[in-house]
Amino acid sequence: MGVQVLFHGCLDDFLPSSGRGLPVTQHTPRRTSLKDLVESFGVPHPEVAALTLNDHPAAFETLIEPLENDHYLIRAWPVRALSDLVMGHALQPPRPRPARLVLDVHLGRLARYLRLLGFDVCWRNDFSDEELADTSAAQNRILLTRDRRLLYRRQIVHGYFVRATDPAQQVEEVCRRFELHDEIAGFKRCARCNALLVKVDKASVARRLEARTLLYYNDFYKCKKCCHVYWQGSHFARMSAWIEALKQQAA
C-alpha cells in the first residue's frame, strides 16, 4: 500500500533536503497508525499539532488499512503552521502554564539560561531516557531534547527537538516555539539547582564574599536550596539587556 504524507512548516526539518516541501511516499504492507507512519519518516509525534487523512481531521490512533484500491494522503502540521482546516482539531492539549520543562543531558547550558529567565527547569547530567519521558508525563513538563528518538515515546505529550546548537539561539528558538516571552521573569531562580531565590541581608552572607564585592554591592540573594549567593555584578546589566531584548521578540 502506497501512502503519501505531506509535512508542513518546520516538520520537514526532519526530512532529507531533497524531499522537503513535497509529498513523500511510504509503502505500508500492513495496518498501521498515523503516529507510527509519521514517525517512520523521522518526525516525532510531539512535533505534530494536527493531522488530516484525505482532507479529514484525524488522530494519532487513526488506523489505515492496506487496501490496494485505497488512496491515502496524510498531511501533518506543526503548531506554528496550522491551517483553518485543522485549527480546531489540535492533537495535544494546551501546554502547561506557567511553563515547566525537563531537558536532556545535552542541554545543560540551555537549562541554566532558562532558569535565569525564571522558568522551572528540571535537568540533571545523568538523566536516562526513561526518566526524562516519565518526568515529562508525570509532572506535565515540556521535554526539550537533541535526541529526536526520545520523543517517540508514547507517554510524551509536550516535547520538542531543539534545532539550534548555540545555547543563546536555543533560548530564542524555544521561547518562540512555546510562546514563552510573556512568562519571562529574570533572576528569580537559581541557575544551578532551579530553586527560588530570596533576598538576604548583606551581613548574613558577608563572610562568604570577597572584599571588593562587599565594598561595591549591597543587594544580595540566596538560593533556598543550595544556598548559592547572587548579586548584581558586572554581568547583570548585560544579562538584563539580553532578557529585555528577548521579551521584545514576542510575535
TrEMBL record:
Pfam families: Mut7-C, Ub-Mut7C
InterPro entries: Mut7-C_RNAse_dom, Ub_Mut7C
Domain Mut7-C RNAse residues, every copy: 100-241
Domain Ubiquitin Mut7-C, first and last residues per copy: 3-65
The protein, known as: Twitching motility protein PilT
